[in-house]
Specification:
The protein has 18 helices and no strands. With 478 residues, the protein is mainly α. It has one domain: Up-down Bundle (Amino acid/polyamine transporter I), CATH 1.20.1740. The N terminus is likely disordered.
Amino acid sequence: MVVNEKITSKLDMSATSDNAQIDEMEITRNNSRLSLVIEGSNDSINRSDSTATVDYLDDNEADYKNDYSCWKRFFKPVREGSLRGSIFSLASITFDTTCLSFPFAIDNMGLIPGTLLLFLMCGMSCWTLYLLMKAGRNTRIIHYRNLIVHCLGHPMAYLSDVNNIIFSLGAQVAYIVTISKFFEEIIKHAFSITEFTKLMKITQMLVSMIFVQIPLSLIKNISTLQYASLIGTFVLIFLMVVMFIESFYFYDKGISENRHIVYFKDISLKYLDSFSIYLFAFSPHNGFFLIIKEMTRPNLRRTQSVIHRSIFLQLVFFVIIGYSGFFSLLEKVPNIFISRDPLANFDPHDYLMQIVKILFFISLHCMCAINFNLLRGTISSLCFKGKDMTQSQNIYVTSIMFTLSNFVAFFSKNVVDVIGIVSGISVSFICYIFPILCFIKTNNNKTWENVLLIIFLIIIFSIGLLSTGWSMIEYFQQ
């Protein structure tokens, strides 16, 4: 009896010890996924917002591949934080009205130079996203602004805030210009109006601002508009299908009118317009870390997959839209493609394209609100020391920003010039200069690589500066 009791006692103690060890391992593993140890940093950044669970070690292949069959991995429902969801989220950041100017960008340079620059800017965007990821990996910080503070200091972070404000305001102006343009064309076709007066334009802009844009943008919980980006993406898909179908009819008309495919155009400063459009389009860098923080198992392999596949998805969208628009009109491509005149084959009203414009008119108002939510966060960080705005402050700031945006949009006839002014410097800083400098700061072992990066940085900044200057000249000459 005594022996049995001792054996039983030892077995219980052993089981208890094993369970305790398992529990301790589980707690340690969970804790390792809840926080990161940040070494070698003495600055006073609020780490609760700048760090996240990132295990950049390789996946256990069995852990990933044996979860689901191949069919289930590709066709199961897209869940929040999943790989496919993260890919789509990063790609959808760039799915806005800029892609409507891709046919113009290709036509502006000629088919071959326009295509080469498109692929070059796509590759450069992918590369700088990879540098941004490596900088975050080296410092264990996956928050864009706090990474800049950690690597470059507070003055550069303030410069980043200024560029974010300029970028967001520029995007806001571009949205409002496009909204006004689509409304004008919808009204003209619906009511057979020959002239859209300035009074009509002012009335439309005031009504949109007071009753739609400002009320939507006052919502701080932007999750209520979470489906707006999906609506915009589906509108682009619908547009892509319509453009592809109609392009054959438009191409035949262009050939019958003795228009030709222009493969090369003389090199001129107008090339900078195409550069600005591509630069503005491939700019998801600000939202990159936000998406990675929400992703399950955000290790190195999965993060690289998000970058590569999202960029590829963007490229497929942009190439189809750009080529469909270019081959449709042949030498007569407007800066916003869907503003082109309809074909007689599709009735003078071209109902499919009118539906696209109406859908864009709706989704762009929601995109204004989403874009302003990012702008409000930057203003709060820069002007209110990161504190949440009060209700009255939120109303004042929102009203002032939208009044300013609509005022500039009223005098802006060409959305390409707006994009050029904004993207030349601001996007160059956000998507190229800051990611490269942060990577250089954390890449102390390869001097030759850092030198090449600095040379590239100088080149891209010089072209961006020249692009902004050229766009400003065109803007004030319009």
